[in-house]
Amino acid sequence: MSELRRKMLTDLRILNYAERTQEIYVTRVAEMAKHLQQSPAVLSAEEVHEYLRYLKEERQVSRSAFVQVVAALRFVYRVTLKRADMVPHIPYPRATRRHPVVLSPDEVSRLLRAIPNVKHRTVAMVLYGAGLRISEALALELRDIDSARMVITVRHGKGDSDRQVALSVVLLEALRTYWLGYKPSCFLFPGREPAKPMGSSTIQRALKAARSRARIAKPAGPHVLRHSYATHLMETGTDLRVIQTLLGHRSLRTTQIYTHVAAERVRTTRSPLDHLGLELVGIE
Questions:
Q1: Does residue 191 lie in a domain region?
Q2: Which of 11, 24, 66, 227 could form a disulfide with 100 if both were Cys (CB 3.0 to 4.6 A apart)?
Q3: Alpha-carbon dihedral of residues 199, 203, 204, 206, nearest 10 degrees?
């Protein structure tokens, strides 16, 4: 392990970054060093800028991957290398606002019924029934399911924050059925090694296959189920701030995107013209 890598990991741990974030940041910085064959400590702003151009124009990496690189580089220069002068040369890309893909309740039902494996289906029910991120669902432990209070405790969510979400009656029954068949001891959804949770790729493949079997044209990955949960809550009249808390959003602005996709609310909103009592017959 290089000295820079060691120092960066120490800084990330001291500042209480999540383990997954630590791994991503260190990997992204190492990728740049490998590509440029130089330590980030000796690179100029022009060299870093050229690397970002290479990622964007030649590699054509996804926006999410590009944001990871930017965040990692800004951290290593600002915190570890104490070169704050580099940060303005590593700007975040402008956000592209897109409406999330949302399944209808019927599509969600068809998708869940098309998953034959009980364990995979139960994970999918947690994603939709509690609105969790895939990483949060797979990190659940048995102690996090409180059937007495009907809540699920989500530990170390995004930003390393904890929160509680409602445990639905249907989901509780599904979890009990799953437990009787699999008898997990620590993690609710363990992988091949009981001491470790299942990998997210397993669930992604299961959902992709179920989407095909259910003949659903839209994407139907883990995050689509989370989007669908939030949108369906919005459509049934749940307060936006409640949804913000359930999803674990720091900013209400993040949650407000669901006000644009709640189709049921749009369809049932009456135009003010309807309240005027005009009769079309005879109006010229």
A1: yes
A2: 227
A3: 140
Rg (CA), the chain: 23
Eight-class DSSP state of 57: I
Q: Residue 41: pLDDT above 90?
A: yes
Q: What domain range includes position 109?
A: 105-268
Per residue in 79-91, pLDDT (tens digit) is 999 999 999 999 9
Q: Is the pLDDT of residue 278 over 80?
A: no
Other Cβ atoms less than 10 A from the Cβ of 229: the count is 24
The answer to whether residue 275 is domain-embedded is no
Q: Are residues 38 and 167 in the same domain?
A: no
Q: Mapping DSSP to helix (H, G, I), strand (E, B) and coil, where does residue 166 land? A: strand
Asked whether the beta carbons of 48 and 89 are under 8 A apart, the reply is: yes
Q: Are residues 127 and 257 in the same domain?
A: yes
Which residues form the catalytic set?
A: 133, 158, 223, 226, 249, 258
Pairing of strands 145-146, 163-166: unpaired
* Both tokens assigned to 71: 């965040």
For 235-269, the pLDDT digits (tens) are: 888 888 888 888 888 777 777 777 666 655 555 55
Q: Map tokens 């949960």 to a residue.
A: 229
